[in-house]
Amino acid sequence: MARTMMFRTSITKGLERLKLSPVNFGSGIARVFSSGNGSSVKRDYDLIVIGGGSGGLACAKEAADLGKRVAVMDYVAPSPKGNSWGLGGTCVNVGCIPKKLMHQASLLGEYLKQAKSFGWNVPDNPIISWNKLTDSVRDHVKSLNWGHRVKLREKHVDYHNLIGTLRDRNTVVTYTKTDRPEEKVFTADHIVIATGMRPRYPLESEVPGTLRHAITSDDIFWLRNPPGKTLCIGASYVALEFAGFLTGFGFETKVMVRSAPLGRFDQQMAGFVMNAMKEHGTEFLLQCVPTRMEDVEGRVKVTWNDAKEGKQNSDLFDTVIVAIGRNASTQNMGLEAVGVRMDDAGFIIGGHNNDHECSSVSNIYAIGDVLKDRPELTPVATKAGKLLARRIFNQSLEQMDYEMVPTTVFTPLEYSFVGLSEEAAIARYGADGIEVYHAFFKPLEYTVPGKKADNCYIKVITDHSPNGQIVGMHYTGPNAGEVMQGFAAALRCGLTKQILTSTVGIHPTCAEEVVKLHITKRSGIDPTVTGC
Q: What's the pLDDT at 40?
């Protein structure tokens, strides 16, 4: 054994003299890396990822596939209501996955009501079981948690259910939030911050009682009892999506908005989404701001200022959901102490060393929601994480492209888009520098049950180049995400209006109405589709 160690030591010293790459002598012995200052230090891992969401896991698994030693540190601090969850991040546990399943459950209720028109003998007023629904959703989420852990084990990625903080640019100190925290120290050549965001509450001084009486998206899927009459506070897509499926379940639901819903989205499309939600049964309290929450015989009394009517109102609710935004989860991580630049809100500033995800410290990176001014979307974080691992460990030069990223708002009338909003297109090209093709259409499945289609709308925005380069596409209607995904790929390939028009549609579908667009807003002609 002593001879073996002497041999390994002599090989290592020889490599150092020749300035060759370090050698891995097996998983039980730490690799030797150049520290960047001329000395050599032992490191436990090639890569440590702090954060076990979609982006962090994608980066970790990709690095492992490239033969690197990788660790993931992930710890979910309980929400103020005490809810926490397993591996997988917001998307898996309290975001995209449970939200989409709830949305689907709401749509099924709508389909049951329409089924009678198609000849089905169904109950007049089908009732949903909240406990059955939430149990089924949680069971699926737990299966995903387990699947992530299994996948990490298969790829020999070390998973630590611990809080990770930085001692220096190569050292991560981990601990648990217990009465007797156990500190562990790990080192790595590269560190990726992928800690995501958590919901933001109003300041207690601004809205007394909020922290005690309101919940957030971290809690809604864990409610053991039906939410009952619900107030959703916020103009975000989260607030609207929650209000949409709760209304679909038969709960009286109101949305309180300070200004306008979906403020960062195309405002014409946002208007269609809101109008459809009103028709669906959701009430909107526009230009209203909460001022106080208090308990009244087990219910929540919310008082608010109504700027539109110039008076103060109040009402009682069984559940209040706050969805006014999210904060970057970068507090108390030691980032500033090691030189990582962040903005005032705690988002990491990337773009250093000609790398979109590189922080101001050359071996520390950020991906996903914690990266400043990047789309807060799961597929974006996943793609960015994979590409980053390839650049770090496989000499790839491919950067994440944050342009032409499609997304969908899963409200009762779904809204999907890719590219620029009409407002952004005008800001970039000028009102006379774009053309907007549009149409109101009625999905075939709406006809038999007589469902209104006033808000089913398509808009394609082009520049004034000879073939009409498409710079934005927007759609409200059934299966919006499924419709938009293929068109998003086409836009990334340089789709023009000329090519779109020459494409044969699939009949009878909603998507075919996109390739049939021919009426411009500028013309003033009625864009309502007639015929089949």
A: 63
Tell me which of 352, 464, 507, 518 is the catalytic residue: 507
Six-digit token string for 211: 């922290």
pLDDT at 178 (0 to 100): 64
DSSP string, 216-230: -TTTGGG-SS---SE
Task: Say if residue 78 is preceded by a cis peptide, omega within 30 of 0.
Answer: no
Residue 458 in contact with residue 435, Cβ under 8 Å?
no
Tokens describing residue 289? 């701001």
First to last CA, the chain: 81
Distance CA 253, CA 251 (A): 6
What is the per-residue pLDDT across 333-342, written as a single tens digit (0 to 9) for each?
999 999 999 9
Residues in the chain: 532
Q: How far apart are CA 65 and CA 157, in angstroms?
A: 10
CA torsion sign, 443 to 445 to 448 to 452?
A: negative
- Packing angle of the helix pair 237-248, 267-280 (nearest 10 deg): 20
Mean pLDDT of 200-228: 96
DSSP assignment of 233-296: E-SSHHHHHHHHHHHHTT--EEEEESS-TTTTS-HHHHHHHHHHHHHHT-EEEETEEEEEEEEE
The first and second tokens of residue 49, run together, are: 């990822």
Q: Is the pLDDT of residue 29 over 60?
A: no
492, 497, 501, 506: CA torsion to nearest 10? 30
Is the preceding peptide bond at 508 cis, omega within 30 degrees of 0?
A: yes
Is the model's pLDDT at 33 over the cut of 50? Answer: no
Amino acid of residue 137: V
- Tell me the DSSP string of 125-177: S----HHHHHHHHHHHHHHHHHHHHHHHHHTT-EEE-SEEEEEETTEEEEE-S
- Amino acid identity, position 205: S
Q: Which amino acid appears at position 382 of this protein?
A: T
How high is the pLDDT of residue 12?
45
Mean pLDDT computed over 383-402: 98
Most distant CA atoms of the chain, gap in Å: 88
Average pLDDT score over residue span 500-519? 98
The reported pLDDT for the residue numbered 177 is: 75
The predicted structure's pLDDT at residue 180? 59
What pLDDT, on a 0 to 100 scale, did the predictor assign at position 508?
97
CA–CA separation, 447 vs 450, rounded Å?
Answer: 5
Q: List for the chain the helix, strand, coil content (%; round to 5).
A: 35, 25, 40
Query: Which residues neighbour 509 within 8 Å (Cβ) at sequence distance 6 or greater?
Result: none
**Do residues 280 and 437 touch, judged by C-beta distance below 8 A?**
no
**Angle (nearest 5°) at CA 157 between 152 and 160:** 90
Q: Quick one: pLDDT at residue 493?
A: 97
- pLDDT tens profile 275-284: 999 999 999 9
Let me know if 507 is a catalytic residue. Answer: yes
